[in-house]
Structure formats: structure tokens, C-alpha cells
């Protein structure tokens, strides 16, 4: 994890909850299912701290596949820049009734 | 249909208990993800983009009503109300929760189902002709052999950790309907011309993925009693010599390519000669026991032609289309095999809701001797329906949105889940299939175009069989955006061929137009009675490339 290439900023940390598999986002207090509450990091130090948090949570069997991803600096729910991560954060584009896009009306 | 005996039952239950304890240890943190991943994969559990995905084995695609209803129940209670049938005739639930998986596996075990060996480097779910036992051109029903191989390969101690995944298909008909030449190993039931004896032609070394290869003949005629000994010899040679240092060179096809099929064959024959056949081969009593499960159901004696169906067809154009496209000739007079298309116009290929599963279960029970089948084309089959019952079945299917009359036509598109679900994907595939399905929705136009297979994968792994589509579409990433390569001339059956690339990748929105241009070349230049693939074979790539280039140039 530490060796992974750091994405551009701003960024958020996405993972899957170990027990449920559901996509979760890191916040200052832990994890949330709501992408609108994801902690957005703007600088290198905060990004590094978030990455370390993800790696620790992975080792503590809380989450799997934690990834720091670059987002658009838009209003509202942070939207990953890359289409893959955007799909991961929102849900399947062919089932708008499922995933975060449906749960949180985004 | 084969029903579990005590041994099968115990094996599956023990496996559920074992996995339940592994899940518990993972959740407590006692197992790391690296330790747990191969264990979960051995039980069909993947991590995809939005969730875990559970892949359930449907051996040789056979399902009964009770199993379908149980799958519907699992979809409702433990998933999101639907499932996805794959090109390997498995069912995937895309929203599995790790903590629930042991209970789900228990629910499956109740109806003789499991997820064992649906992933990982082992012998995977055995597939067979979806018209097994009913096909008009059948030499012999392949299901007893498929079931024998299923039992032999389940938890086979020597072949638990192969160099890579291993897929076996079995067919017993004159025409291949299993994409046999894309398999690591193919078992084809054949009749020896000289003696009239039935035995097997064994194929080896097929595969799609990054480096697609066509399977070659390993043994032209194998006496039937020697099947398991011969499979053991072939698997052993692969298990010992297959590369384990490079995942991308580890399939048996690379070994066959490396040493050549002649050397591979010599090694297998040498090993085969050494094996104690009485130990390795199946016991005839056990074979007979298995075969007894696949006896013909109690068919009625019916006239060849159904007057009531003829009259109904004359009155109803939609029914006429359905009968024309979705029925397959049955070996028994007055019966047909009926294909239920899971390719509604604009729908998601292979997806089925829990309500639809229950409706198919009811129809199978009422009209098809409690049998349904899954096809590699991601459709379902009711294998034995009376022609007289077709109008009624059609009406019931229509209520469920399952009466799409497009089997084998341009909208009967194979598509893997792609980036909408799959963590390995480089691009989405479902939206491409949907756009094409909508573009060619008009039934008259579909009829005019005729037989044409479009197959779409969301990455080089080729789960959507794009290499063997008459038109194949492969989703990739190009400069941070989805990009689609189009191939032409692939074929899955006896005239097996890998498609050839037409040109550079296109953005998603250009794909329907490009496909339309290719179809236009065919329509303009076909000869009487020629279908799309025949025209491409006669004309070669050039005119299609020219048409394609206009679109590609406009993009560039
Ligand atoms: C989590 C989802 C999936 C993963 C991780 C996955 C992984 C792979 C990989 C890595 C390969 C390439 C194997 C190789 O070249 O050695 C492959 C091939 C294949 N998969 Fe999948 N796949 C997934 C879903 C599916 C689905 C949904 C289907 C059916 C629609 C499917 C059917 C196949 C088939 C038919 C092939 C090509 C035949 C072959 O060469 O084995 N897979 N898959
Ligand atoms: S072809 Fe690629 S994108 Fe499609 S299911 Fe297979 S691994 Fe996933």
C-alpha cells in the first residue's frame, strides 16, 4: 500500500467493508456508506495520513481493497475522476436503482 | 435430473461447515486477506466493485423448479432481487455479503447446489449442450458423462491446485453447441465409423482470454470405459508441466503450444499406459446408477404437427415470430425445446429477476418435466415442451417480459458484466449491448439480417466470448476513457474461428454506427440464402474494413 502511486489531489479513500462488501468512504471518525460525507484531502500530508489509515484498517480486518482516488473538485458528493472509480463510488450505471446513486440520490 | 446421494450431500455439507469457519476466522481477523482470498475463491466468492459476488455452479446448465425457487429466495432475502447467468452457465449474485455467505451456501446445499470450484485454479463447472437428451442430432446424451466428470473432478485431491483454471465441455450431438474449442479440454461423444462403437474424441488446449487459441484433437477415438483414466493422464501431465511462474502463461493451451500437440499427446499416452485402468476408470455399476437419472421422461405419443399451435400462429404474429426463432427441433414428435431469451430489448443480458425465476420454475414444472437449462448464450431452455402448450407458455412468458423472440438474431447479444460490476474490467460492456439491442430492435429488420452473433467483453479476459462473435467487441481503456475494439468473423461452433481486428478502438457512442455499417456491407453484398458469417467468409475482411475505416477516421 505504501508503495502505491499517490493520485492527484484532491482525493478520497474508498474501500469495501469486509463483512458486507459494501463500498465505504473514510471520514475523520472512521467509515461511512455515504459518499457525501467522505473526507476530502487537499494536501500531501493529509493524503498520506489517509493512506496509512486505509492500510491499518485493512490489517485490522475492517475493510478490503482500500484505495485513495482523485476526485473532481465539484460541489456535493465528491466524484472520482476516473470512470472506474466513479462507477465504484456510485453504483452500476445500468441499474440506477441500486448502489450509492440510489441510496443517497446522487 | 441427477439427485445427490448421501456421499454428495455429506461432501457439500462438510464444505459449507468448513467455509463457515473460515469466514468466521476472517471476520475476527485471525485470517489475513491474503490467506483468505484463495479459500473464498475456492467457494465461488469474489470481491467486485460494489460488493462481493457469489458464483453458483449449475453443472451442465441443468436446473429444476425447486432449485430455481431457492435461487429466487436467495435473490430476495440475501441479494438485490436478481441474478446473472453467465457464459459458463453459472449464476452470479452481485451483491453478496460475506457474513451471509455461509447461510446462503446452506440454503443451496438443501437443493443440491454449491459454489465449489466455480473459481480458483481447479477443474471448473462442467458445461454441456443445453439440448442434451432432446436434440434431434444427438448421438448420445452427454449428461451422464458430464455428471461423471463432475463427481470425479469435485475435490479431486491431485487436481485441487492446478497451475491455472481448467474448463471442460461435453457434447454428444452432431453439431457443437458448447463452444467446445474454447475449452481447456473437450469431450465429444462420437461413433466409430468402422465398429459402430460409441466413444469419445478428446480435444485439448482451447481458451479465450488474452491469447485465444483453438483446441486441437488429443485423441481421435477413446473407448468409453477409458475416459477417467485418460482424463487423469491429461490432467497429470498438465499439472506437472504447466507453468506456475507466470499466471498469463499458465493455462494448458500454453503448454500445448510450447511443446506442440504431438509431444503433449505422446506424454499423455505414455502416462495413460502407466495408469492402472481398473482403479482409475469409473465402475460400470456407478456409471449405470448415474445414467439412470437421465432416463427419458414419460413423453406422450403425439402427432408430429400440432394443429392448435398452427392455428394460434396464424392468428398471432408475435407468437409466429416466437415459434420461428425460439423453438428447436426435438427428437420426439410433437415436442420442442423452447429457448427463453434473457435478452429483452434494451435489457441486461443474462439478468433475471426473482419473479422471473419463479415463473420459469412454474413453467418447467407444469410443461417441461421439471427441467430447465442454462445456455452459454445466457438464455434458458425448457427442454421438453409439447407443441400444443407453446401458445400458453408464450402467454405466460409475455407477462413476465420473457417472450423476446430473438434467439440467434442480432439482438441476442452475449455480454459479460463489464465495468458496471467487475473489478477487472477496463470498460463497461452492458451499455454497449443495450445500445445495439435498441438500434436493431425492429423485428422485421432483425429477421432480414438473420443469424448474427454479437459478443462483448469488458476486458481482455474475454468472459463475453468476443473472439468468437461474428462481431466481437472488446472494451479497453484508451487515454483515460472507454474505448471499444471491434473484430469480425469469429465463430463458436464447428466452423470455429477467431475474429480479426477491424481497426483502432472507438468511443462507446460510435459503436452502434460502426456495427450498422458492417451490417450494411453484408446486406448489400450477400448472396441468396447467405447469412452474415458466410458473407464475411466469402468476402474476407477488406470491404468491412473499408466501411469501418470511415467511422474510425471520423473519430480520429
Ligand atoms: C469477478 C468476475 C470475473 C473474474 C474475476 C473473471 C476472471 C477471468 C479471467 C482472469 C479470465 C482469463 C483467464 C485466462 O486467460 O487464463 C477469464 C476468462 C473467462 N471467464 Fe471470467 N471472470 C469473471 C466473470 C465472468 C463472467 C461473468 C463470465 C460469464 C459471463 C465468465 C466466463 C469466462 C469465460 C467464458 C472466459 C474465457 C474462456 C477461458 O479462456 O477461460 N467470467 N475470466
Ligand atoms: S471479460 Fe473482463 S470485464 Fe468481463 S467479466 Fe470477464 S474479467 Fe470482468
Please give a structural write-up.
The complex is a heterodimer of chains A (106) and B (556). Chain A has 106 residues and is an alpha+beta fold. Helix content of chain A is 26%, strand content 22%. Chain A has helices spanning 44-59, 83-90, 100-103, and strands at 11-17, 23-27, 30-32, 63-70. Chain A has a four-stranded antiparallel β-sheet with strand order 3-2-1-4, with helices on both faces. With 556 residues, chain B is an alpha+beta fold. Chain B has four domains: 6-110, Alpha-Beta Complex (Sulfite Reductase Hemoprotein, domain 2); 134-292, 2-Layer Sandwich (Sulfite Reductase Hemoprotein, domain 1); 307-399, Sulfite Reductase Hemoprotein, domain 2, CATH 3.90.480.20; 414-555, Sulfite Reductase Hemoprotein, domain 1 (2-Layer Sandwich), CATH 3.30.413.10. Helices cover 38% and strands 17% of the residues of chain B. Chain B has 19 helices and 20 strands. Chain B has helices at residues 6-28, 33-41, 65-78, 101-110, 143-153, 227-241, 252-259, 261-274, 277-280, 284-292, 307-315, 317-326, 354-367, 390-399, 430-439, 443-449, 511-525, 532-539, 542-555, and strands at residues 45-47, 52-56, 62-63, 82-85, 91-96, 127-128, 168-171, 185-191, 198-204, 216-223, 327-329, 335-340, 351-353, 372-374, 380-386, 414-415, 454-457, 471-478, 481-488, 500-501. In chain B, the strands form four sheets. Chain B has a five-stranded antiparallel β-sheet with strand order 1-2-5-4-13. In chain B, strands 3-14-15-12-11 form a five-stranded antiparallel β-sheet. A five-stranded mixed β-sheet of chain B has the order 6-7-8-9-10. In chain B, strand 8 (185-191) and strand 9 (198-204) form a beta hairpin. In chain B, helix 3 packs antiparallel against helix 13, helix 6 (227-241) packs across helix 8 (261-274) and helix 7 (252-259) crosses helix 8 (261-274). The N and C termini of chain B lie far apart (55 Å). The interface between A and B is medium-sized, with 25 and 30 residues. Iron/sulfur cluster (SF4) binds next to loops of chain B.
Amino acid at each position: 500500500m505504501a508503495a502505491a502511486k499517490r493520485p492527484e489531489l484532491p482525493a478520497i479513500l474508498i474501500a469495501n467493508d469486509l463483512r458486507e462488501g459494501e463500498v465505504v468512504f473514510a471520514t475523520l471518525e472512521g467509515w461511512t456508506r455515504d459518499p457525501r460525507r467522505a473526507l476530502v484531502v487537499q494536501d500531501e500530508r493529509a493524503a498520506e495520513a489517509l493512506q496509512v489509515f486505509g492500510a491499518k484498517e485493512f490489517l485490522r480486518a475492517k475493510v478490503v481493497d482500500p484505495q485513495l482516488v482523485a476526485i473532481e473538485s465539484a460541489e456535493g458528493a465528491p466524484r472520482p475522476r476516473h470512470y472506474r472509480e466513479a462507477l465504484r463510488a456510485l453504483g452500476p450505471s445500468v441499474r440506477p436503482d441500486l448502489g450509492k446513486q440510489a441510496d443517497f440520490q446522487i | 435430473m441427477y439427485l445427490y446421494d448421501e456421499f454428495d450431500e455429506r461432501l457439500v455439507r462438510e464444505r459449507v461447515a468448513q467455509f463457515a469457519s473460515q469466514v468466521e476466522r476472517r471476520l475476527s481477523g485471525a485470517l489475513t486477506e491474503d490467506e483468505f482470498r484463495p479459500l473464498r475463491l475456492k467457494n465461488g466468492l469474489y470481491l467486485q466493485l460494489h460488493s462481493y459476488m457469489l458464483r453458483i455452479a449449475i453443472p451442465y446448465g441443468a436446473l429444476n423448479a425447486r432449485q430455481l425457487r431457492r435461487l429466487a429466495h436467495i435473490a430476495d432475502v440475501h441479494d438485490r432481487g436478481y441474478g446473472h447467468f453467465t457464459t459458463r452457465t453459472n449464476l452470479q449474485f452481485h451483491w453478496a455479503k460475506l457474513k451471509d455467505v455461509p447461510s446462503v451456501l446452506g440454503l443451496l446445499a438443501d437443493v443440491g447446489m454449491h459454489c465449489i470450484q466455480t473459481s480458483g485454479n481447479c477443474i471448473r463447472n462442467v458445461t454441456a449442450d443445453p439440448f442434451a437428451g432432446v436434440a434431434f442430432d444427438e448421438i448420445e446424451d452427454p449428461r451422464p458423462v458430464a455428471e461423471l466428470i463432475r463427481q470425479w473432478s469435485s475435490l479431486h485431491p491431485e487436481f485441487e491446485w492446478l497451475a491455472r483454471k481448467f474448463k471442460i465441455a461435453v457434447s454428444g450431438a452432431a453439431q457443437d453447441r458448447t463452444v467446445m474449442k474454447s475449452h481447456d479440454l473437450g469431450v465429444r461423444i462420437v461413433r466409430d465409423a468402422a465398429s459402430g462403437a460409441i466413444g469419445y474424441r478428446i480435444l485439448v488446449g482451447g481458451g479465450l482470454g488474452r491469447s485465444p487459441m483453438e483446441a486441437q484433437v488429443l485423441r481421435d477415438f477413446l473407448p468409453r470405459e477409458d475416459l477417467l483414466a485418460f482424463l487423469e493422464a491429461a490432467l497429470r501431465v498438465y499439472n506437472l508441466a504447466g507453468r506456475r511462474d507466470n499466471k498469463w502463461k499458465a493455462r494448458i493451451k500454453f503448454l500445448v503450444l510450447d511443446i506442440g500437440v504431438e509431444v503433449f499427446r505422446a506424454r499423455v499416452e505414455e502416462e495413460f499406459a502407466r495408469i492402472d485402468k481398473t482403479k482409475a476408470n469409473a465402475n460400470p455399476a456407478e456409471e449405470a446408477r448415474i445414467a439412470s437419472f437421465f432416463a427419458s421422461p414419460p413423453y406422450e405419443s403425439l402427432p408430429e404437427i400440432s394443429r392448435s399451435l398452427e392455428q394460434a400462429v396464424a392468428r398471432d404474429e408475435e407468437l409466429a415470430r416466437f415459434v420461428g426463432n425460439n423453438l428447436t427441433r426435438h427428437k420426439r414428435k410433437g415436442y420442442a425445446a423452447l429457448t427463453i431469451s434473457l435478452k429483452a430489448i434494451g435489457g441486461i443480458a443474462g439478468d433475471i429477476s426473482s419473479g422471473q425465476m419463479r415463473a420459469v420454475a412454474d413453467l418447467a414444472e407444469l410443461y417441461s418435466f421439471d427441467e430447465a437449462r442454462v445456455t452459454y448464450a445466457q438464455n434458458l431452455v425448457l427442454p421438453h415442451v409439447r407443441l400444443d402448450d407453446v401458445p400458453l407458455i408464450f402467454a405466460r412468458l409475455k407477462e413476465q417480459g420473457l417472450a423476446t423472440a430473438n434467439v440467434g438474431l442480432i439482438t441476442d447479444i452475449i455480454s459479460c458484466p463489464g465495468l458496471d460490476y467487475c473489478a477487472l474490467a477496463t470498460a463497461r460492456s452492458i451499455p454497449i449491448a443495450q445500445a445495439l439491442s435498441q438500434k436493431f430492435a425492429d423485428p422485421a429488420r432483425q429477421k432480414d439480417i438473420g443469424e448474427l452473433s454479437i459478443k462483448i467483453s469488458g476486458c481482455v479476459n474475454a468472459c463475453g466470448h468476443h473472439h468468437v462473435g461474428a462481431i466481437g467487441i472488446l472494451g479497453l481503456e484508451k487515454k483515460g476513457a472507454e474505448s471499444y475494439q471491434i473484430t469480425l468473423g469469429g465463430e463458436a461452433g464447428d466452423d470455429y474461428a477467431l475474429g480479426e481486428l477491424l481497426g483502432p478502438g472507438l468511443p462507446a457512442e460510435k459503436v452502434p454506427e460502426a456495427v450498422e455499417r458492417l451490417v450494411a456491407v453484408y446486406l448489400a453484398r450477400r448472396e441468396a440464402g447467405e447469412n452474415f458469417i458466410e458473407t464475411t467468409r466469402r468476402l474476407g475482411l477488406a470491404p468491412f474494413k473499408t466501411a469501418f475505416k470511415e467511422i474510425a477516421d471520423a473519430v480520429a
